[in-house]
Amino acid sequence: MRQDKRTAPKAPINENISAREVRLIGADGEQIGIVSIDEALRIAEEAKLDLVEISADAVPPVCRVMDYGKSLFEKKKQQAAAK
Fold it and tell me: What keyword terms does UniProt attach to this protein (predicted)?
């Protein structure tokens, strides 16, 4: 019997975020506030990091400046350690 690997849907990142404004959290966890998506993308680009949508259900959506690849790696590592 084949096991299906269920993966959580990936969070929208960078230009894939459809909101016009977002509540932005900086790379070190500080709350920057509500900014336009263009401003949020500029801040992420200047930091050489990704803009990741954390909570799409919030109004406005919550996004964080982070290294998305590193975040995925850490999450997979934690899941493997839990098994």
Answer: Initiation factor, Protein biosynthesis
**With 0-12 CB in 10 A as exposed, 13-18 as middle and 19+ as buried, what is 54?**
middle
Provide the residue ranges of all domains of the chain, joining segments of one domain with +: 14-82
On whether the CB atoms of residues 70 and 27 are closer than 8 A, the answer is no
Q: Tens digits of per-residue pLDDT, 22-71? A: 999 999 999 999 999 999 999 999 999 999 999 999 999 999 999 988 88
What are the structure tokens assigned to 26, written together?
Answer: 């900086």
Backbone angles phi, psi at 37, to 5 degrees: -65, -35
Q: In angstroms, how far apart are the furthest CA atoms of the chain?
A: 50
Distance CA(65)–CA(78), nearest Å, equals: 21
Tokens 């900086």 sit at which residue? 26
Q: Which homologous superfamily does the CATH classification assign to the domain defined by 14-82?
A: Translation initiation factor 3 (IF-3), N-terminal domain (3.10.20.80)
